[in-house]
Amino acid sequence: MATEPRDHEHAHDHDHGDAHPHGSELTEQQARVRALETVLTEKGYIDPAALDRIVEAFETRIGPHIGARIVAKAWADPQFRKRLLEDATAAINADGTLGRVSDHLIAVENTPRRRNMIVCTLCSCYPWEVLGLPPVWYKSAAYRSRSVIDPRGVLKDFGVALAAETEVRIWDSTAETRFIVIPMRPAGTDGWDEEQLAELVTRDSMVGTGEALRPNEVRR
Amino acid sequence: MNGVHDMGGMHGFGPVTPEKNEPVFHASWEGRVFAMQRATGLLGYWNIDMGRAAVEKLPPHVYLGVTYYEKWQRGLEARLLSFGLVGADELEAGHALHPAKPVKRTLAAAEVDGALQRGSYTRPEQAPARFKPGAQVHTRNINPTSHTRLPRYARDRVGMIEAIRGCHVFPDSVVLGKGEDPQWLYTVVFDGKELWGEQAAPGLKVSIEAFEPYLEPA
Prior knowledge:
The complex is a heterodimer. Chain A is mostly helical.
């Protein structure tokens, strides 16, 4: 682990401060950010109350539950699924119950023959509006480097094994287009309504590194 | 630029290690950095491409050695300094020491919800699209020292136009101060063997989102 970038250290079971060997460094980072915020506030460039609202939005309102509802609707409504795959932004905005997303969202569908995975090898582009902010692993050097050359190895890190004949399609997010994976609908969910189906849709399943949950994996 | 940020296909970074029940931010300062990045984007001095370029220019050992939001903070400080919006002495002192420069917009708390939606990057077309879906294209072997969105692993390769995504702001021009210079954007898909040779994983296909200037007919 010593040779890995710090990003990975988030993956352990402790908070950010422990990623640094010394407490004084943590204080230094916090102090540096506080100094920056103070300077920007005093110069009138930012309003700290606006920062509070931005943080609150991403901690409480914008997250993978939005994408899960979109996927559930696609599973339940074949017409919506068709429109979503043609133009995800237009389909979601026309629906009226799924929130609004901006231009350039593209939905790609997993099938028994094809697995889709999203990555950004150059930075950390991610469909914020439907999945919230990306997890640390998505932004890690390990994921960004390996997913395009060894996706099955990456999937193994997530405990996912694909059939040998499955095509693996990697979408490298190198522009302002954004992608969401529509995972396969789990068996044993006939007759479920959209709300029930949405509970099966995990964040990782919409990035392509996981599967949707099976009915027996949801606490009901 | 051919920097360490361009990671596709590199070896040696170890396994991917997902964290169970991961919080959105791992420390409160991360949220502040994230929010400052969003809010200062409205000051009118840079766009998202210039933001990315600033992070890519961090020295390689810094880029690889610090956490994600530390990169953002350092990239943000670099932009603020380069546009003269803050002085190094102010960051050192932790207080404003000089008058502010004029800005386009300061984001107020009440405006946040409306400002969180991403803008559109589509622009009016400057010329008809050069390629049609299904066309074979060759990615150019370019090595600019400035920001580009054509990853190294996908240069000088033959792929297929899968879709046309409209005419978009062209990052490579923006960072050079040449304006938005809208260009057609395509999804170009490559066979794994074209990218990685005979040892490529069977059944692998990789696509990039490629601006028209990156492409020529195959």
